[in-house]
Amino acid sequence: MTRAMQAYATEFQGKKVFITGGSRGIGAATAQRLLDGGATVVVTARTRHAQTPAGATFIEGDISTPTGAHAVATDALRLLGGLDILVNNAGAAAPKLQGLESITDTEWLDALMINFMSAVRVTNPLLPALRASGSGAIVNVSAGGLLPFYGFLAQYGAAKAALNSYTRSLAKELAPAGIRVNLVTPGSITTPGADEGRKLLTAGLGIAPEHLLGGIPLGRHGTAEELAETIAFLVSDRAAYITGHNQFISGGFGEIA
Ligand SMILES: NC(=O)c1ccc[n+]([C@@H]2O[C@H](COP(=O)([O-])OP(=O)(O)OC[C@H]3O[C@@H](n4cnc5c(N)ncnc54)[C@H](OP(=O)(O)O)[C@@H]3O)[C@@H](O)[C@H]2O)c1
């Protein structure tokens, strides 16, 4: 084994990790990447999928409610016996093809609950354990940063904007405790959830799937593994001097186009 391979396989040894939405897509790829680096990983979602990493402990739960979020967070802590790394990855986008005015109050609130409040509610009960870790790290998975969203995803964009603001407040408050808090902003990534969303969108708008590649300078969708690699970097000691940062992984979308 080369030194680089050895470092890859041992970098997260002894680290206790909790990932929301770790049953598939970006969350599952991140769980697998940290498992490959030697971490102990607990993941949560409403349903276990074929993609859910076998090496992770799975907790079933719905984190869009206060009681659901609190239950999975305390369960994860009990199973891990401490916490070093938290990835608030769970999120969901439900396109409303009729535009902004058609988004109901309930839909605005639902978007906030799963894309924003779930992170607040999961993080709060875990903060004492992250403080005790000595090298705690959080990554929150956003979308689009503060970019304007098309009307069909405005509720999702607004909820993620709240997540961005919350993340930076958290980074500032937790810095003296040595806990680093960063954001990642995926562009268009191939995952089960996003693939379903893109199908709905292209069918509803009557456009070809290739049309969606138009605004991406690198001309392709990203992979969940590309996201996982960046998240792994941000929670690792290699990023020890990075906090409050928003890292786009978007093929240039939102940055140069
Ligand atoms: N893929 C992209 O192009 C893209 C772009 C920008 C941002 N993002 C963000 O990246 C993150 C991961 O997305 P993804 O593309 O990997 O989506 P995905 O394939 O749909 O995975 C989402 C994960 O979140 C879980 N989840 C959803 N609602 C939940 C709830 N109420 N309680 C507990 N778990 C829940 C899902 O499991 P269950 O459904 O079984 O609960 C699943 O494990 C999300 O925050 C998303 O907003 C993705």
From TrEMBL:
Keywords: Oxidoreductase
SUPFAM superfamilies registered for this protein in UniProt: NAD(P)-binding Rossmann-fold domains
Source organism superkingdom: Bacteria
Keyword Oxidoreductase: yes
PROSITE patterns associated with the record: ADH_SHORT
GO MF annotations in UniProt: oxidoreductase activity, acting on the CH-OH group of donors, NAD or NADP as acceptor
Keyword Oxidoreductase in record: yes
Family, similarity comment: Belongs to the short-chain dehydrogenases/reductases (SDR) family.
Protein name: SDR family oxidoreductase
UniProt organism field: Hymenobacter polaris
